[in-house]
């Protein structure tokens, strides 16, 4: 712990075999599916989806949220973007649920690769806590370029208070990010509001989901 704090570098990763890494990715992704199921319905019910015909779920993992959005809005077409090994799992789950005609997938690096365009809404769940504020602005700007005029960006994550003394879960999670990511953190509302402004968005509203998460809705300006 002391070494991590002094160096600012995360713990070294134990790189196993390809089979071991694939197994770990699958187990982690399916665990995220179970966790996401608890809040996906609450998130979707808290959003106004009228007029949303095309949506991007960036870093959408196993597709739990994308499928919940598809259930809520029968006219919506969705695109789920994630890393190739995660997309393989998501595609299987989407087929099993019968949503393959309405949920398409893209695999790649969110910063380097094409994430599509023409979206009315983009959704980021538990994504920005692995990023520095600089990278958050970059990804917000990239999303902004894919959105239609007055398109919305919805961000669900854990947030710290302005002096970073709480909530307890958020501060503990920030320590987790310090240990396991290069630049992740639990950010504050003011930091995200500033990131929105720099990327061409305006904060519209927010609401809480479960005990630890907040959903923030911003509109492209």
User: Which fold does the CATH topology refer to?
Assistant: Rossmann fold
Strand content: 15-25%
Whole-number mean pLDDT: 89
Oligomer: single chain
Helix content: 40-55%
The CATH H-level homologous superfamily: Vaccinia Virus protein VP39
Q: Kindly give the count of domains.
A: 1
User: Could you tell me the number of beta strands?
Assistant: 7
Strand/helix succession: HHEHEHEEHEHHEE
Unreliable sequence segments: 1-7
List the total number of helices. 7
Biggest β-sheet strands, sense, barrel:
7 strands, mixed
Biggest sheet: strand arrangement: 3-2-1-4-5-7-6
Question: Strand pairing plus helix content: what structural class?
Answer: alpha/beta
Descriptive account of the structure:
By secondary structure, the protein is of the alpha/beta class. The chain has one domain (17-208): Rossmann fold (3-Layer(aba) Sandwich). The chain has 7 helices and 7 strands. It has a 7-stranded mixed β-sheet with strand order 3-2-1-4-5-7-6, with helices on both faces. Strand 1 (54-58), helix 3 (64-72) and strand 2 (77-82) form a beta-alpha-beta unit. Helix 2 runs parallel beside helix 3. The termini are far apart. The model is unreliable at 1-7 (pLDDT under 50).
Explain briefly what this protein structure is.
By secondary structure, the chain is α/β, with parallel strands linked by helices. It contains 7 helices and 7 strands. It has a 7-stranded mixed β-sheet with strand order 3-2-1-4-5-7-6, sandwiched between helices.
């Amino acid at each position: 712990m002391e070494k991590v704090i002094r160096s600012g570098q995360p713990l070294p990763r134990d790189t196993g075999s390809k089979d071991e890494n694939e197994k770990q990715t699958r187990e982690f992704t399916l665990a995220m599916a179970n966790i996401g199921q608890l809040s996906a319905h609450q998130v979707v019910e808290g959003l106004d989806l009228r007029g949303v015909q095309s949506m991007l779920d960036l870093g959408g993992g196993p597709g739990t949220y994308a499928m919940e959005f598809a259930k809520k809005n029968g006219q919506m077409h969705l695109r789920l973007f994630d890393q190739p090994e995660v997309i393989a799992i998501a595609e299987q789950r989407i087929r099993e649920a019968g949503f393959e005609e309405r949920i398409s997938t893209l695999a790649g690096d969110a910063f380097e690769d094409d994430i599509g365009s023409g979206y009315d809404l983009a959704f980021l769940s538990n994504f920005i806590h692995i990023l520095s504020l600089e990278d958050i602005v970059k990804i917000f700007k990239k999303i902004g370029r894919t959105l239609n005029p007055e398109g919305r960006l919805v961000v669900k994550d854990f947030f710290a208070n302005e002096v970073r003394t709480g909530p307890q879960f958020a501060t503990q999670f920030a320590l987790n990010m310090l240990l396991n990511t290069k630049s992740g953190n639990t950010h504050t509302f003011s930091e995200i509001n500033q990131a929105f402004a720099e990327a061409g968005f305006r904060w519209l509203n927010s609401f809480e989901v479960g005990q630890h998460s907040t959903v923030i809705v911003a509109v492209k300006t």
